[in-house]
Every structure is written in C-alpha cells, then in structure tokens.
Design goal:
By secondary structure, the chain is an alpha/beta fold. The chain is about 40% helix and about 20% strand. About 20% of the residues are buried.
C-alpha cells in the first residue's frame, strides 16, 4: 500500500541479520528502513516497544529511526548471574574461574555495550548483586519513563521477583510489571 517500514535488527555484532535485512530492503525503493539495534533479547524488545510508541504517535519511518538513534545512547541492560555454569559452558568463563566463583558466591553483573557483553562488576552473593543492580540504575540516571523490561533465565523467578519487590520505588511501584523469560540464545 506504499507504507514505510522500520526493521529493528538484532545487533550486527552477534548476528548476520542486519546484513541480510539491508540486502532485502534494497528491493523496496527506500520504503524499508533498517536499524541496527546494537542489542538483542530484552534490550531489543525495549527498542521495539519504543518504536511502536512512536509509530502510534504518527511518526514517520525516518523520525522513528532518528529517535531510535537518540534512544540507543540511553538503552541499558543489567544482569546478575546467580549461577556461573552456563557462562562456563558457553566459553565466556574458564572452568577454574567458574569453580572459584561458585565457591566464593561471586555474581557477575553484566551489560551490553557496543553490541557485545561487558562486565560491570562482581558481587558476593545474590543479595549484594541485587543491590549492585539498584546502585547502577541510580548512578546512571536511567530514564524509567522510557520502556523497560524485567527478565530472568533458568527455572527460578525468585531473584527477579525479589528485585521488583524491593526496588518498586525506582519504577513507580507498578504492580503489573511484566517479567519475561530469557532463553539460551
């Protein structure tokens, strides 16, 4: 019908989807705008929700891409790993480091920066890991008027539910906070 579309790609740093989308978009005479989110999973979801909000406000594809570029400077993902086994299995942590980390109850806190994973710090125990997440949110002055999301991996939601319950003042004590599951990929 002549409409324009905006495609938000998973980070070009972890996937070839961006390149494929750019090739496909060439067939639509500039009507498909391809945006490299530099993110994946939950942080990509936040960008998609923001793009939808902009589209619902009547913004053009070019305006949406421009706003996404500005928002990209502010997008943060913060995660604390309760168990180090999957980091070891994925090759991101040596067996020796995983063993020592589990023994000392070290919980790494990570973020995504420039399309890749970066360690923000480490905490001893999950309680301190949850506090470290809060401290990071406060120190970065994260704009919670923008879309945000909560997620967990594994079979236990307890840690994310603890974070939500103990830190409701950060996000206006919303009781209908959506929590998503993050899979292996």
């Amino acid at each position: 019908d002549g409409s324009q579309a905006v495609y938000l790609s998973i980070s070009s740093g972890v996937s070839g989807s961006m390149q494929s989308a750019m090739l496909a978009a060439q067939e639509f005479d500039g009507k498909v705008k391809v945006f490299d989110s530099h993110h994946f999973c939950i942080s990509l979801r936040v960008l998609v929700e923001y793009a939808k909000r902009l589209a619902d406000e009547g913004k053009s594809a070019d305006e949406i891409v421009e706003s996404l570029n500005e928002a990209l400077k502010k997008v943060r993902i913060i995660a604390v790993f309760a168990i180090l086994e999957n980091l070891r299995k994925g090759g991101r942590l040596s067996s020796a480091s995983a063993f020592v980390g589990e023994l000392l109850a070290i919980k790494p806190m990570i973020t995504i920066k420039d399309g890749g994973v970066e360690v923000l710090g480490k905490a001893r125990g999950m309680k301190k890991g949850i506090k470290a997440m809060r401290d990071y949110i406060e120190s970065e002055e994260i704009d919670l008027s923008m879309p945000y999301a909560f997620a967990y991996s594994g079979s236990d939601r307890e840690n994310i539910e603890t974070f939500i319950a103990e830190n409701g003042d950060l996000y206006d004590d919303k009781t209908d906070v959506e929590v998503s599951y993050v899979g292996a990929t």
